[in-house]
Amino acid sequence: MHKTRRMKSLILFTLLIFTIGCIREHSVLLSNDPIVNKYFNKEEIEGLVKILNFFEDEIANQSATDNIIDSYELFFENIKPEMKLEEFDSIISFGVQKKFLSDLNPILFNEIWFYKKDYNPIIKDTVESIHYKWKGKYFDFLYAVSEKDKAIEEYFKDFTAVGDVSPSILAYSMMDYKKYDLKLERIRLIIAINYLTFNEQLRLIENQRE
């Protein structure tokens, strides 16, 4: 009898520890995330939090829910038709995002992105585009996350295989959104940066048409 009780107690205790572990894993903030802290300093992490908050505030404003996970799912569902047709439209105002990026800590910005200007012989003019910085802290962080997360591993391989950023590639990477663990802030940060890159590329393309 005592052995049975002890066994039950041990099982319950094990399940409790496992449950607590799962809850902690799904409630890790960027500031407490060990992978984030490995690659970014305190000031840079504050900037990453601003990026995440900016994106989430924008998509929350367009949904009728206070639940951030529901906001993401509605966001993805809203842009799915555009992605399939490759007729992309901006979810976040170009002007609002441009100001946000210009106000972002330039050191952090340069660890994530860089702008590039090239001459386009078709339109006979110089065009500007945005790119991920392959040798920056963000890409190192992305690789580290990809080693622990299957969905991000696939995402990372897509970009390294192509070697560049285009609106269609960025859009397709969001098609199967249900595979991402939206409870983790680091995963939501990757999605946020992905979309902000996509949106900034659209803005630059639009500027070329004017």
Briefly characterize the structure.
Helix content is 66%, strand content 8%. The chain is built from ten helices and two strands.
Q: What features would you describe in this structure?
A:
The protein is mainly alpha-helical. The chain folds into 2 domains: 1-29; 33-209, no CATH class. The chain is 66% helix and 8% strand. It contains 10 helices and 2 strands. It has helices at residues 2-25, 34-39, 42-61, 68-85, 94-103, 106-112, 137-146, 150-162, 167-172, 185-209; strands spanning 113-120, 125-132. Strands 1-2 form a two-stranded antiparallel sheet. Strand 1 and strand 2 (125-132) form a beta hairpin. It is globular, with a radius of gyration of 20 Å. It starts with a helix and ends with a helix. The relative contact order is 0.14.
How large is the radius of gyration?
Answer: 20 Å
**What is the total number of structural domains?**
2
Largest sheet: 2 strands, antiparallel
* Helical amount: 55-70%
Strand proportion, as a percent range, falls in: 5-15%
Order of helices and strands: HHHHHHEEHHHH
Spell out the key features of this protein.
2 domains; mainly alpha; globular; 10 helices; two-stranded antiparallel ribbon; 210 residues; disordered N terminus
